[in-house]
Amino acid sequence: GAKTQGKNRWEIFDENRRARAVDRVAVAATLRQALRDDRFVLHFQPVIDLGTGKAVAVESLVRLDDPHYGLLPPAAFIQVAEDSGLIVPIGTYVLQEACRRLAAWRAAGIVPPDFRAAVNLSARQATQPDLAKTVGRALARAGIEPAALALELTETVLMDADTSTLRQFEELREMGVELGIDDFGTGYSSLSYLKRLPVSIIKVDRSFVAGLVTDPSDREIVTAVIRLGQALGLTTIAEGVEDAEQFSMLQELGCDQAQGYLLGRPQAQPPTVSVLMSGTSRDSSRNPTL
Ligand code: C2E
Ligand code: MG
Ligand code: MG
Ligand code: MG
Fold it and tell me: Where is the EAL domain positioned along the sequence (predicted)?
């Protein structure tokens, strides 16, 4: 079907990109054109509160709606975007669009007024001297309070942060923006930055969640990360929850929130808030303009 074809297409695209430097130039040109043509789109994956079973936020995930290759996932273009510096304007678009969409969903009553959004930041973006200003402008333009936005950073970005980048992070935190560590446990493993940096969220990498039920060492790692998060007063979010056993084990372990295909795949439409428990559920999939 069309889906399989789309996947094969981006794999070919990805192969070409890897194979020849000249294609990296072509990809960069494609990205530049896509920015002009407004061809970047966001998909949204629900983040579920493990206490209530309800969606409390979304993670915003960028895609490129390419006229030739179809919908391309970040794996097909993020590296070229990062290397070429185009990730900065792409990232600004993602920030503005995520805030704008969140405001529209709230205004339409599709999500509750305290519903939040997360956005991924690349290394290049995180080290921009005007990061806090860019984020502040996106929030103000949409009329969203800073506490509704979480910025996801990798361990590498946090470890490499120089004093001026750290100052940007502090400034964001003082504004009320949440900072989270994405893919926790897969990067450099110095834990001292948890104390040093203004981080309030840790996301347990899906590779550990995948083995949670079957692999005793993965279970120990997930347990330890959740305890660590609790001890430091951080919100813990498990990534990549794909089955009900993982879900209930995470609940038992006291993990705060979860994301994964079991709970909702990334999609163009706003999330349905009542994902797991009965209550007021509004089907927003009929209104694709929001
Ligand atoms: P991430 O931030 O760790 O995002 C989670 C990825 O895991 C997403 O892939 C999501 O679709 C996928 N995922 C979610 N639930 C499951 C599950 O249950 N099982 C499995 N196997 N996968 C699941 P996606 O959308 O392809 O994004 C990949 C990565 O690209 C992201 O990883 C993030 O690092 C990066 N990315 C995405 N959007 C942006 C963006 O706007 N800016 C930047 N700089 N990076 C982005
Ligand atoms: Mg992320
Ligand atoms: Mg992640
Ligand atoms: Mg991940």
Answer: 24-280
